[in-house]
Amino acid sequence: PCYRCVYPDTGELGERCADTGVLGSMVGIIGCVQATEAIKLLAGFGESLAGRLLMLDARTMRFREFRLPRDSACPVCSR
Asked: Is the whole model's pTM more than 0.85, yes or no?
């Protein structure tokens, strides 16, 4: 599934990071996870996170993983 499958376009603008702020350390943590996933895919080793959503609760520093199906009506990835 893609981002649009998880967060459909409602036509409404949600809160913006410029208005609500961003916890810089979280951007670093998630960026490292994404970089590791890219390296794994390019090198062809390990299990990809494809089809799963990895969520981090910064208060407890716990990761949770959810399986997500692709939306068959998604205008981005259902083609």
From this structure: no
